[in-house]
What does this fold into?
Amino acid sequence: MEGMTLIAKGAEADLWFDPDWNGVRALIKRRGEKRYRHPDLDREIRRLRTLHEASMIHRAKEAGVPTPVIYQVDPEDATIVMEYVGGEKVRDIVDDLSGEMRYELFKLIGLLAGRLHGVGIVHGDLTTSNIINSPEGPVFVDFGLGEASNETEKRGVDLNLMHRMLTSTHFRHTEELFSAFREGYVEGLGEEAEQALGRMEEISRRGRYVERE
Amino acid sequence: MDVLTCLGIESTADNLGIGIATSDGRILANEITTHVPEEGGIHPREAARHHADVVGDTISRALAIAGITSKDLDFIAFAQGPGLGPCLRTGATAARALSAYLKVPLVGVNHCVSHIEIGRQTEGAVDPLTLYVSGGNTMVTGYEAGRYRVFGETLDIALGNCLDVFARAAELPYPGGPAVEQHALKGETLIPLPYVVKGMDLSYSGLMTAATQELMKGSHSLEDICFSLQEVAYAMLGEVTERALAHTGKGEVLLTGGVGANKRLRSMIGLIAEEHGAEAKFVPIKYATDNGAMIAWTGVVAYMHGVRTPIAESFIDSKWRVDQVEVPWRG
It folds into this structure.
Protein backbone atom coordinates (compact mmCIF):
# COMPACT_ATOMS: atom_id res chain seq x y z
CA MET A 1 0.00 0.00 0.00
CA GLU A 2 1.58 3.16 -1.29
CA GLY A 3 2.78 5.89 1.06
CA MET A 4 1.56 4.00 4.06
CA THR A 5 3.48 2.72 7.05
CA LEU A 6 2.75 -0.54 8.82
CA ILE A 7 2.37 0.37 12.50
CA ALA A 8 1.45 -2.96 14.04
CA LYS A 9 0.98 -6.54 12.96
CA GLY A 10 -1.41 -8.39 15.24
CA ALA A 11 -2.75 -11.93 15.32
CA GLU A 12 -6.08 -10.63 14.06
CA ALA A 13 -5.38 -7.48 12.07
CA ASP A 14 -2.71 -5.18 10.69
CA LEU A 15 -2.63 -1.44 11.37
CA TRP A 16 -1.43 1.02 8.72
CA PHE A 17 -0.85 4.75 8.95
CA ASP A 18 -1.84 6.75 5.87
CA PRO A 19 -0.56 10.37 6.06
CA ASP A 20 -2.89 11.45 3.25
CA TRP A 21 -6.15 9.59 3.03
CA ASN A 22 -8.27 11.99 1.01
CA GLY A 23 -6.48 14.88 2.68
CA VAL A 24 -6.50 13.60 6.27
CA ARG A 25 -4.24 11.46 8.39
CA ALA A 26 -5.86 8.07 8.81
CA LEU A 27 -5.41 4.76 10.54
CA ILE A 28 -6.32 1.73 8.45
CA LYS A 29 -7.17 -1.49 10.19
CA ARG A 30 -7.34 -4.55 8.00
CA ARG A 31 -8.18 -8.09 9.03
CA GLY A 32 -6.04 -10.22 6.78
CA GLU A 33 -6.99 -13.55 5.20
CA LYS A 34 -6.26 -16.65 7.23
CA ARG A 35 -4.95 -19.44 5.05
CA TYR A 36 -5.88 -22.12 7.54
CA ARG A 37 -9.61 -21.33 7.40
CA HIS A 38 -12.03 -22.35 4.66
CA PRO A 39 -12.22 -19.29 2.35
CA ASP A 40 -15.99 -18.85 2.74
CA LEU A 41 -15.80 -19.10 6.52
CA ASP A 42 -12.80 -16.78 6.57
CA ARG A 43 -14.54 -14.12 4.50
CA GLU A 44 -17.65 -14.27 6.69
CA ILE A 45 -15.74 -14.02 9.98
CA ARG A 46 -13.66 -11.07 8.78
CA ARG A 47 -16.72 -9.35 7.34
CA LEU A 48 -18.81 -9.70 10.50
CA ARG A 49 -16.01 -8.68 12.85
CA THR A 50 -15.26 -5.58 10.80
CA LEU A 51 -18.90 -4.49 10.90
CA HIS A 52 -19.14 -5.34 14.58
CA GLU A 53 -16.05 -3.37 15.54
CA ALA A 54 -17.19 -0.32 13.60
CA SER A 55 -20.54 -0.46 15.32
CA MET A 56 -18.94 -0.78 18.79
CA ILE A 57 -16.74 2.27 18.12
CA HIS A 58 -19.76 4.22 17.00
CA ARG A 59 -21.96 3.23 19.91
CA ALA A 60 -19.23 4.10 22.39
CA LYS A 61 -19.02 7.57 20.89
CA GLU A 62 -22.78 8.01 21.22
CA ALA A 63 -22.39 7.21 24.92
CA GLY A 64 -19.90 10.04 25.29
CA VAL A 65 -16.77 7.91 25.28
CA PRO A 66 -14.23 9.44 22.89
CA THR A 67 -13.25 6.99 20.12
CA PRO A 68 -11.73 7.53 16.68
CA VAL A 69 -14.02 8.96 13.99
CA ILE A 70 -14.79 6.31 11.40
CA TYR A 71 -14.21 7.46 7.82
CA GLN A 72 -14.98 4.33 5.89
CA VAL A 73 -15.93 0.70 6.44
CA ASP A 74 -15.38 -1.90 3.76
CA PRO A 75 -16.76 -5.19 5.08
CA GLU A 76 -15.82 -7.17 1.96
CA ASP A 77 -12.16 -6.17 2.31
CA ALA A 78 -12.43 -6.33 6.13
CA THR A 79 -11.06 -2.82 6.40
CA ILE A 80 -11.90 0.13 8.63
CA VAL A 81 -10.46 3.55 7.83
CA MET A 82 -10.56 5.80 10.88
CA GLU A 83 -9.23 8.98 12.35
CA TYR A 84 -5.56 8.85 13.29
CA VAL A 85 -5.57 9.86 16.94
CA GLY A 86 -2.39 11.76 17.77
CA GLY A 87 -0.81 11.32 21.17
CA GLU A 88 0.89 8.67 23.24
CA LYS A 89 -0.50 5.52 24.71
CA VAL A 90 -1.45 6.13 28.33
CA ARG A 91 0.79 3.17 29.10
CA ASP A 92 3.86 5.11 28.02
CA ILE A 93 3.22 8.40 29.81
CA VAL A 94 2.03 7.38 33.28
CA ASP A 95 5.45 7.74 34.84
CA ASP A 96 6.00 11.22 33.36
CA LEU A 97 2.89 12.79 34.87
CA SER A 98 2.70 14.65 38.14
CA GLY A 99 0.75 12.99 40.94
CA GLU A 100 -2.22 15.27 40.48
CA MET A 101 -2.35 14.82 36.69
CA ARG A 102 -2.10 11.05 37.07
CA TYR A 103 -5.00 11.11 39.46
CA GLU A 104 -7.19 13.26 37.22
CA LEU A 105 -6.37 11.19 34.12
CA PHE A 106 -7.24 7.87 35.74
CA LYS A 107 -10.39 9.28 37.32
CA LEU A 108 -11.46 10.36 33.83
CA ILE A 109 -10.55 6.98 32.33
CA GLY A 110 -12.60 5.31 35.07
CA LEU A 111 -15.52 7.62 34.33
CA LEU A 112 -15.39 6.78 30.62
CA ALA A 113 -15.11 3.03 31.31
CA GLY A 114 -18.15 3.36 33.60
CA ARG A 115 -20.13 5.15 30.89
CA LEU A 116 -19.15 2.52 28.35
CA HIS A 117 -20.39 -0.26 30.61
CA GLY A 118 -23.49 1.81 31.35
CA VAL A 119 -24.62 1.75 27.72
CA GLY A 120 -24.10 -2.00 27.50
CA ILE A 121 -20.66 -2.26 25.93
CA VAL A 122 -17.65 -4.09 27.27
CA HIS A 123 -14.31 -3.30 25.70
CA GLY A 124 -12.78 -6.77 25.91
CA ASP A 125 -9.18 -5.55 26.06
CA LEU A 126 -9.25 -2.64 28.47
CA THR A 127 -5.58 -1.85 29.03
CA THR A 128 -3.55 1.35 29.16
CA SER A 129 -2.14 0.41 25.73
CA ASN A 130 -5.60 0.82 24.25
CA ILE A 131 -6.19 4.33 25.54
CA ILE A 132 -4.50 7.21 23.74
CA ASN A 133 -3.73 10.38 25.65
CA SER A 134 -4.65 12.87 22.93
CA PRO A 135 -4.52 16.66 23.30
CA GLU A 136 -8.31 16.58 23.76
CA GLY A 137 -8.15 13.92 26.48
CA PRO A 138 -8.18 10.12 26.61
CA VAL A 139 -9.48 8.25 23.54
CA PHE A 140 -10.44 4.58 23.70
CA VAL A 141 -9.22 2.52 20.77
CA ASP A 142 -9.22 -1.10 19.54
CA PHE A 143 -12.72 -2.44 20.02
CA GLY A 144 -11.80 -5.65 18.23
CA LEU A 145 -12.83 -7.75 21.22
CA GLY A 146 -15.71 -5.47 22.21
CA GLU A 147 -19.13 -6.92 22.93
CA ALA A 148 -22.62 -5.67 23.50
CA SER A 149 -23.25 -6.93 27.02
CA ASN A 150 -24.61 -5.88 30.40
CA GLU A 151 -23.25 -8.93 32.19
CA THR A 152 -21.52 -8.28 35.51
CA GLU A 153 -19.03 -11.03 34.65
CA LYS A 154 -17.86 -9.31 31.47
CA ARG A 155 -17.63 -5.95 33.16
CA GLY A 156 -15.58 -7.67 35.86
CA VAL A 157 -13.24 -9.09 33.21
CA ASP A 158 -12.68 -5.58 31.78
CA LEU A 159 -11.91 -4.21 35.26
CA ASN A 160 -9.70 -7.15 36.13
CA LEU A 161 -7.62 -6.61 33.03
CA MET A 162 -7.18 -2.93 33.85
CA HIS A 163 -6.28 -3.77 37.44
CA ARG A 164 -3.80 -6.42 36.34
CA MET A 165 -2.17 -3.92 34.00
CA LEU A 166 -1.86 -1.38 36.82
CA THR A 167 -0.32 -4.07 39.03
CA SER A 168 2.19 -5.31 36.48
CA THR A 169 3.18 -2.43 34.19
CA HIS A 170 2.37 0.46 36.52
CA PHE A 171 3.42 -1.18 39.77
CA ARG A 172 4.86 2.07 41.16
CA HIS A 173 1.43 3.65 41.43
CA THR A 174 -0.97 0.69 41.45
CA GLU A 175 -3.11 1.65 44.44
CA GLU A 176 -3.20 5.36 43.66
CA LEU A 177 -4.16 4.81 40.02
CA PHE A 178 -6.77 2.19 40.74
CA SER A 179 -8.44 4.22 43.45
CA ALA A 180 -8.69 7.14 41.01
CA PHE A 181 -10.05 4.79 38.35
CA ARG A 182 -12.53 3.35 40.82
CA GLU A 183 -13.80 6.78 41.86
CA GLY A 184 -14.46 7.72 38.23
CA TYR A 185 -15.95 4.31 37.42
CA VAL A 186 -18.50 4.55 40.22
CA GLU A 187 -19.46 8.02 39.02
CA GLY A 188 -19.79 6.83 35.41
CA LEU A 189 -21.75 3.64 36.00
CA GLY A 190 -23.69 4.43 39.16
CA GLU A 191 -25.07 1.83 41.52
CA GLU A 192 -24.14 -1.20 39.40
CA ALA A 193 -20.47 -0.29 39.80
CA GLU A 194 -20.00 -1.97 43.17
CA GLN A 195 -21.28 -5.25 41.78
CA ALA A 196 -18.82 -5.13 38.89
CA LEU A 197 -15.93 -4.20 41.19
CA GLY A 198 -16.84 -7.07 43.50
CA ARG A 199 -16.84 -9.46 40.56
CA MET A 200 -13.44 -8.16 39.53
CA GLU A 201 -12.02 -9.23 42.87
CA GLU A 202 -13.63 -12.63 42.57
CA ILE A 203 -12.22 -13.10 39.05
CA SER A 204 -8.72 -12.16 40.16
CA ARG A 205 -8.88 -14.94 42.76
CA ARG A 206 -9.78 -17.62 40.21
CA GLY A 207 -7.02 -19.99 39.25
CA ARG A 208 -7.16 -19.25 35.59
CA TYR A 209 -6.39 -15.61 36.17
CA VAL A 210 -3.48 -16.23 38.50
CA GLU A 211 -0.90 -13.49 38.04
CA ARG A 212 1.73 -14.19 35.45
CA GLU A 213 4.85 -12.81 37.07
CA MET B 1 22.64 -43.00 40.16
CA ASP B 2 20.50 -46.08 39.69
CA VAL B 3 17.83 -46.09 37.04
CA LEU B 4 14.41 -45.97 38.70
CA THR B 5 11.29 -47.64 37.33
CA CYS B 6 7.74 -46.35 37.68
CA LEU B 7 4.40 -47.97 36.93
CA GLY B 8 1.66 -45.47 36.03
CA ILE B 9 -2.10 -46.00 36.15
CA GLU B 10 -4.46 -43.98 33.95
CA SER B 11 -8.20 -44.29 34.58
CA THR B 12 -9.77 -40.87 34.09
CA ALA B 13 -12.40 -41.94 31.53
CA ASP B 14 -13.03 -44.98 29.31
CA ASN B 15 -9.40 -46.14 29.04
CA LEU B 16 -7.62 -48.14 31.70
CA GLY B 17 -3.97 -47.63 30.88
CA ILE B 18 -0.89 -49.12 32.49
CA GLY B 19 2.50 -47.71 31.55
CA ILE B 20 6.01 -48.38 32.73
CA ALA B 21 8.69 -45.71 32.42
CA THR B 22 12.26 -45.36 33.64
CA SER B 23 14.22 -42.40 34.95
CA ASP B 24 16.57 -42.57 31.93
CA GLY B 25 13.62 -41.74 29.69
CA ARG B 26 12.52 -45.10 28.34
CA ILE B 27 8.93 -46.29 28.01
CA LEU B 28 8.98 -50.04 28.68
CA ALA B 29 5.25 -50.71 28.36
CA ASN B 30 2.06 -48.91 27.44
CA GLU B 31 -0.98 -51.21 27.72
CA ILE B 32 -4.48 -49.87 27.22
CA THR B 33 -7.82 -51.61 27.79
CA THR B 34 -10.83 -49.62 26.59
CA HIS B 35 -14.35 -49.84 27.96
CA VAL B 36 -16.81 -49.93 25.05
CA PRO B 37 -20.37 -49.05 26.12
CA GLU B 38 -23.10 -51.27 24.66
CA GLU B 39 -24.99 -48.14 23.74
CA GLY B 40 -24.71 -44.37 24.21
CA GLY B 41 -21.72 -42.65 25.77
CA ILE B 42 -19.54 -43.47 28.75
CA HIS B 43 -21.43 -44.35 31.92
CA PRO B 44 -18.95 -43.51 34.70
CA ARG B 45 -20.00 -46.36 37.02
CA GLU B 46 -19.92 -48.98 34.29
CA ALA B 47 -16.57 -47.77 33.03
CA ALA B 48 -15.24 -47.93 36.60
CA ARG B 49 -16.51 -51.52 36.95
CA HIS B 50 -14.73 -52.39 33.70
CA HIS B 51 -11.50 -50.84 34.96
CA ALA B 52 -11.72 -52.81 38.22
CA ASP B 53 -12.23 -56.02 36.23
CA VAL B 54 -9.24 -55.53 33.93
CA VAL B 55 -6.71 -53.62 36.04
CA GLY B 56 -5.01 -56.76 37.42
CA ASP B 57 -4.58 -58.41 34.02
CA THR B 58 -3.45 -55.18 32.38
CA ILE B 59 -0.78 -54.65 35.05
CA SER B 60 0.47 -58.25 34.55
CA ARG B 61 0.58 -57.73 30.79
CA ALA B 62 2.52 -54.46 31.12
CA LEU B 63 5.06 -56.05 33.49
CA ALA B 64 5.52 -59.01 31.11
CA ILE B 65 6.05 -56.73 28.11
CA ALA B 66 8.56 -54.65 30.09
CA GLY B 67 10.30 -57.87 31.10
CA ILE B 68 10.27 -57.02 34.79
CA THR B 69 8.42 -58.08 37.92
CA SER B 70 6.58 -55.98 40.46
CA LYS B 71 9.69 -56.18 42.69
CA ASP B 72 11.53 -54.00 40.16
CA LEU B 73 9.13 -51.08 40.64
CA ASP B 74 10.53 -48.14 42.60
CA PHE B 75 7.31 -46.15 42.86
CA ILE B 76 3.73 -45.99 41.58
CA ALA B 77 2.11 -43.05 39.77
CA PHE B 78 -1.59 -42.58 39.15
CA ALA B 79 -3.89 -40.03 37.54
CA GLN B 80 -5.37 -38.14 40.49
CA GLY B 81 -7.59 -35.95 38.31
CA PRO B 82 -9.32 -34.41 36.46
CA GLY B 83 -11.78 -36.97 35.16
CA LEU B 84 -14.82 -39.09 35.99
CA GLY B 85 -15.01 -39.69 39.74
CA PRO B 86 -15.78 -43.43 39.81
CA CYS B 87 -13.11 -44.17 37.18
CA LEU B 88 -10.49 -42.12 38.99
CA ARG B 89 -11.31 -43.86 42.28
CA THR B 90 -10.77 -47.28 40.75
CA GLY B 91 -7.32 -46.35 39.46
CA ALA B 92 -6.40 -44.63 42.73
CA THR B 93 -7.47 -47.69 44.74
CA ALA B 94 -5.29 -49.97 42.62
CA ALA B 95 -2.36 -47.53 42.95
CA ARG B 96 -2.68 -47.31 46.75
CA ALA B 97 -2.88 -51.08 47.02
CA LEU B 98 0.22 -51.60 44.88
CA SER B 99 2.14 -48.92 46.76
CA ALA B 100 1.26 -50.39 50.15
CA TYR B 101 1.90 -54.00 49.09
CA LEU B 102 5.26 -53.24 47.45
CA LYS B 103 6.16 -50.67 50.13
CA VAL B 104 7.10 -48.07 47.50
CA PRO B 105 6.11 -44.38 47.31
CA LEU B 106 3.00 -43.09 45.57
CA VAL B 107 2.94 -40.10 43.19
CA GLY B 108 -0.36 -38.46 42.21
CA VAL B 109 -0.22 -36.93 38.74
CA ASN B 110 -2.44 -34.41 36.99
CA HIS B 111 -3.85 -36.00 33.83
CA CYS B 112 -3.57 -32.81 31.71
CA VAL B 113 0.00 -32.13 32.84
CA SER B 114 0.92 -35.70 31.86
CA HIS B 115 -0.44 -35.17 28.32
CA ILE B 116 1.97 -32.24 28.01
CA GLU B 117 4.95 -34.06 29.57
CA ILE B 118 4.71 -37.18 27.42
CA GLY B 119 4.52 -35.00 24.32
CA ARG B 120 7.59 -33.03 25.36
CA GLN B 121 9.42 -36.30 25.92
CA THR B 122 8.43 -38.26 22.80
CA GLU B 123 8.49 -35.28 20.40
CA GLY B 124 11.49 -33.56 21.92
CA ALA B 125 9.55 -30.35 22.54
CA VAL B 126 11.25 -27.98 24.98
CA ASP B 127 8.79 -25.19 25.75
CA PRO B 128 5.73 -25.71 23.55
CA LEU B 129 2.37 -24.06 23.38
CA THR B 130 0.26 -27.20 23.90
CA LEU B 131 -3.16 -27.88 22.40
CA TYR B 132 -4.80 -30.68 24.29
CA VAL B 133 -7.95 -31.70 22.45
CA SER B 134 -9.90 -34.81 23.37
CA GLY B 135 -13.34 -36.13 24.26
CA GLY B 136 -13.12 -34.58 27.71
CA ASN B 137 -10.75 -31.63 27.39
CA THR B 138 -10.05 -28.72 25.05
CA MET B 139 -7.36 -26.29 26.19
CA VAL B 140 -4.46 -24.20 24.96
CA THR B 141 -1.71 -24.08 27.57
CA GLY B 142 1.86 -22.93 27.94
CA TYR B 143 4.43 -22.83 30.70
CA GLU B 144 4.92 -19.53 32.49
CA ALA B 145 6.27 -18.84 35.96
CA GLY B 146 6.03 -22.22 37.66
CA ARG B 147 2.85 -23.55 36.09
CA TYR B 148 1.15 -24.52 32.88
CA ARG B 149 -1.10 -21.54 32.27
CA VAL B 150 -4.37 -21.82 30.40
CA PHE B 151 -4.53 -19.28 27.56
CA GLY B 152 -7.81 -20.52 26.20
CA GLU B 153 -10.23 -23.35 26.88
CA THR B 154 -13.74 -24.55 26.23
CA LEU B 155 -16.46 -22.91 28.27
CA ASP B 156 -18.79 -25.89 27.93
CA ILE B 157 -18.17 -29.22 26.18
CA ALA B 158 -14.91 -30.55 24.73
CA LEU B 159 -14.36 -30.57 20.97
CA GLY B 160 -14.20 -34.38 20.95
CA ASN B 161 -17.43 -34.55 22.88
CA CYS B 162 -19.09 -32.31 20.27
CA LEU B 163 -17.99 -34.75 17.55
CA ASP B 164 -19.02 -37.81 19.58
CA VAL B 165 -22.54 -36.57 20.33
CA PHE B 166 -23.06 -35.51 16.71
CA ALA B 167 -21.77 -38.86 15.46
CA ARG B 168 -24.16 -40.71 17.75
CA ALA B 169 -27.10 -38.69 16.39
CA ALA B 170 -25.90 -39.54 12.88
CA GLU B 171 -25.60 -43.21 13.87
CA LEU B 172 -21.89 -43.21 13.15
CA PRO B 173 -19.61 -45.46 15.21
CA TYR B 174 -17.92 -44.33 18.45
CA PRO B 175 -15.55 -42.51 18.83
CA GLY B 176 -17.07 -39.93 16.52
CA GLY B 177 -13.93 -38.13 15.34
CA PRO B 178 -12.58 -40.70 12.84
CA ALA B 179 -16.07 -41.36 11.39
CA VAL B 180 -16.81 -37.64 10.97
CA GLU B 181 -13.39 -37.19 9.37
CA GLN B 182 -14.06 -39.93 6.80
CA HIS B 183 -17.41 -38.44 5.78
CA ALA B 184 -15.96 -34.92 5.73
CA LEU B 185 -13.49 -35.98 3.03
CA LYS B 186 -16.43 -36.31 0.64
CA GLY B 187 -18.08 -33.04 1.68
CA GLU B 188 -17.87 -29.97 -0.56
CA THR B 189 -20.30 -27.30 0.56
CA LEU B 190 -19.79 -25.19 3.66
CA ILE B 191 -23.05 -24.88 5.61
CA PRO B 192 -23.27 -21.89 8.01
CA LEU B 193 -22.80 -23.14 11.59
CA PRO B 194 -22.19 -21.14 14.79
CA TYR B 195 -18.55 -20.12 15.17
CA VAL B 196 -18.14 -19.14 18.82
CA VAL B 197 -14.88 -17.68 20.11
CA LYS B 198 -15.24 -15.50 23.20
CA GLY B 199 -12.01 -13.65 23.77
CA MET B 200 -9.59 -16.54 24.11
CA ASP B 201 -12.22 -19.13 25.03
CA LEU B 202 -14.31 -21.51 22.98
CA SER B 203 -17.85 -22.82 23.08
CA TYR B 204 -18.84 -26.01 21.27
CA SER B 205 -22.30 -26.79 22.63
CA GLY B 206 -24.12 -24.49 20.19
CA LEU B 207 -22.17 -25.93 17.27
CA MET B 208 -23.09 -29.45 18.33
CA THR B 209 -26.79 -28.58 18.56
CA ALA B 210 -26.80 -26.73 15.23
CA ALA B 211 -25.02 -29.56 13.39
CA THR B 212 -27.42 -32.11 14.86
CA GLN B 213 -30.39 -29.96 13.81
CA GLU B 214 -29.06 -29.80 10.23
CA LEU B 215 -28.97 -33.58 10.32
CA MET B 216 -32.63 -33.77 11.41
CA LYS B 217 -33.72 -31.23 8.79
CA GLY B 218 -32.21 -33.41 6.11
CA SER B 219 -31.63 -30.61 3.60
CA HIS B 220 -27.88 -31.26 3.42
CA SER B 221 -25.91 -34.44 2.91
CA LEU B 222 -24.21 -36.04 5.91
CA GLU B 223 -20.91 -35.48 4.10
CA ASP B 224 -21.47 -31.72 3.85
CA ILE B 225 -22.52 -31.47 7.50
CA CYS B 226 -19.44 -33.41 8.66
CA PHE B 227 -17.26 -31.23 6.43
CA SER B 228 -18.74 -28.00 7.80
CA LEU B 229 -18.67 -29.21 11.40
CA GLN B 230 -14.95 -29.94 11.10
CA GLU B 231 -14.13 -26.69 9.32
CA VAL B 232 -15.86 -24.57 11.97
CA ALA B 233 -14.76 -26.57 15.04
CA TYR B 234 -11.10 -26.63 14.05
CA ALA B 235 -10.96 -23.04 12.79
CA MET B 236 -12.20 -21.88 16.21
CA LEU B 237 -9.36 -23.75 17.87
CA GLY B 238 -6.96 -22.40 15.24
CA GLU B 239 -7.88 -18.82 16.04
CA VAL B 240 -7.22 -19.21 19.75
CA THR B 241 -3.98 -21.03 19.00
CA GLU B 242 -2.81 -18.26 16.72
CA ARG B 243 -3.53 -15.58 19.30
CA ALA B 244 -1.80 -17.52 22.07
CA LEU B 245 1.19 -18.03 19.79
CA ALA B 246 1.38 -14.32 18.98
CA HIS B 247 1.01 -13.45 22.67
CA THR B 248 3.58 -15.90 24.06
CA GLY B 249 6.01 -15.98 21.14
CA LYS B 250 6.67 -19.67 21.78
CA GLY B 251 8.63 -21.53 19.11
CA GLU B 252 6.80 -24.85 19.22
CA VAL B 253 3.18 -25.97 19.01
CA LEU B 254 2.42 -29.40 20.40
CA LEU B 255 -0.85 -31.04 19.39
CA THR B 256 -2.08 -33.85 21.62
CA GLY B 257 -5.25 -35.66 22.77
CA GLY B 258 -7.32 -38.03 20.66
CA VAL B 259 -8.66 -35.29 18.37
CA GLY B 260 -5.04 -34.43 17.53
CA ALA B 261 -5.08 -37.42 15.16
CA ASN B 262 -7.37 -35.51 12.77
CA LYS B 263 -5.58 -34.64 9.53
CA ARG B 264 -7.51 -31.44 8.86
CA LEU B 265 -6.74 -30.12 12.34
CA ARG B 266 -3.09 -31.04 11.87
CA SER B 267 -2.89 -29.17 8.58
CA MET B 268 -4.46 -26.06 10.15
CA ILE B 269 -2.06 -26.11 13.08
CA GLY B 270 0.83 -26.70 10.67
CA LEU B 271 -0.12 -23.58 8.66
CA ILE B 272 -0.53 -21.42 11.77
CA ALA B 273 2.80 -22.55 13.19
CA GLU B 274 4.52 -21.84 9.87
CA GLU B 275 3.05 -18.34 9.75
CA HIS B 276 4.45 -17.58 13.20
CA GLY B 277 7.83 -19.19 12.68
CA ALA B 278 7.05 -22.00 15.10
CA GLU B 279 7.48 -25.73 14.71
CA ALA B 280 4.37 -27.93 14.80
CA LYS B 281 4.78 -31.23 16.64
CA PHE B 282 2.17 -33.97 16.66
CA VAL B 283 2.08 -36.54 19.42
CA PRO B 284 1.56 -40.05 17.96
CA ILE B 285 -1.83 -41.52 18.79
CA LYS B 286 -0.62 -44.17 21.28
CA TYR B 287 0.75 -41.38 23.48
CA ALA B 288 -1.88 -38.77 22.54
CA THR B 289 -4.91 -40.77 23.62
CA ASP B 290 -5.39 -41.47 27.36
CA ASN B 291 -2.60 -43.87 28.29
CA GLY B 292 -0.57 -45.16 31.21
CA ALA B 293 2.85 -44.32 29.77
CA MET B 294 2.21 -40.59 30.17
CA ILE B 295 1.24 -41.08 33.81
CA ALA B 296 4.31 -43.24 34.48
CA TRP B 297 6.63 -40.76 32.74
CA THR B 298 5.17 -37.72 34.51
CA GLY B 299 5.43 -39.72 37.74
CA VAL B 300 9.14 -40.15 37.04
CA VAL B 301 9.67 -36.44 36.36
CA ALA B 302 7.71 -35.41 39.47
CA TYR B 303 9.38 -38.01 41.70
CA MET B 304 12.84 -36.86 40.63
CA HIS B 305 11.83 -33.38 41.80
CA GLY B 306 10.71 -34.56 45.19
CA VAL B 307 6.97 -34.95 44.62
CA ARG B 308 5.39 -37.64 46.85
CA THR B 309 1.73 -38.29 47.59
CA PRO B 310 1.16 -39.83 51.03
CA ILE B 311 -1.86 -42.18 51.14
CA ALA B 312 -3.67 -39.68 53.35
CA GLU B 313 -3.40 -37.07 50.59
CA SER B 314 -4.18 -39.38 47.70
CA PHE B 315 -7.84 -38.36 47.32
CA ILE B 316 -8.86 -37.96 43.72
CA ASP B 317 -9.93 -34.52 42.48
CA SER B 318 -12.24 -34.81 39.49
CA LYS B 319 -11.96 -31.07 38.76
CA TRP B 320 -8.23 -30.60 39.30
CA ARG B 321 -7.23 -27.79 36.92
CA VAL B 322 -3.95 -27.94 35.06
CA ASP B 323 -3.02 -24.43 36.25
CA GLN B 324 -3.36 -25.43 39.91
CA VAL B 325 -0.35 -27.72 39.62
CA GLU B 326 3.15 -26.56 40.53
CA VAL B 327 5.62 -28.00 38.03
CA PRO B 328 9.02 -27.61 39.76
CA TRP B 329 10.81 -29.58 37.01
CA ARG B 330 10.21 -26.74 34.57
CA GLY B 331 11.78 -24.03 36.76
